[in-house]
From TrEMBL:
Residues in the signal sequence: none
Organism encoding this protein: Azospirillum doebereinerae
Family stated for the protein in its record: Belongs to the flagella basal body rod proteins family.
Subcellular localization: Bacterial flagellum basal body
Cytoplasm listed as a keyword: no
Annotated ranges, domain Flagellar basal body rod protein N-terminal: 21-39
Keyword check for Cytoplasm: no
Protein name: Flagellar basal body rod protein FlgB
Region of interest (Disordered), ranges: 54-93
Function, as annotated: Structural component of flagellum, the bacterial motility apparatus. Part of the rod structure of flagellar basal body.
Subunit structure, as described in the record: The basal body constitutes a major portion of the flagellar organelle and consists of a number of rings mounted on a central rod.
Amino acid sequence: MDLGNLGLFKLMSRKMDWLTQRQEALSQNIANADTPDYKTKDLKSFTFRDALSDSRRLTPTATNASHLAGTRGAGGMAQEQTVRDPYETAPDGNNVILEDQMMKMSQNSMDYQTITNLYKKQVNMIKSAIRTGG
């Protein structure tokens, strides 16, 4: 049984991938805290709607002039974006605020731990269902 094919596990796996990529972006921000003209970077936020959309899905084709055009474009999970200039910018042009980056990293770590625990609980529930034959 491949858990990767189940919807919930696929969604949790995508969230964990996003959290891993965000951790890398935040780590780069902290590593470049003293680099002149470095601008902080972060990932596009992970939303449930974007997570459920699949880039491989077929797009509908309007066969009638009265059909409405779609409103959502193709979204990517790991699109890196430059964060707006914060209120605090160093004279050398660097806008990394270490306190903000550390808070984001701790939130990221807590989110990852939550998803990991949820993953474990789901696996244990499936094992229990298999053992009891239910």
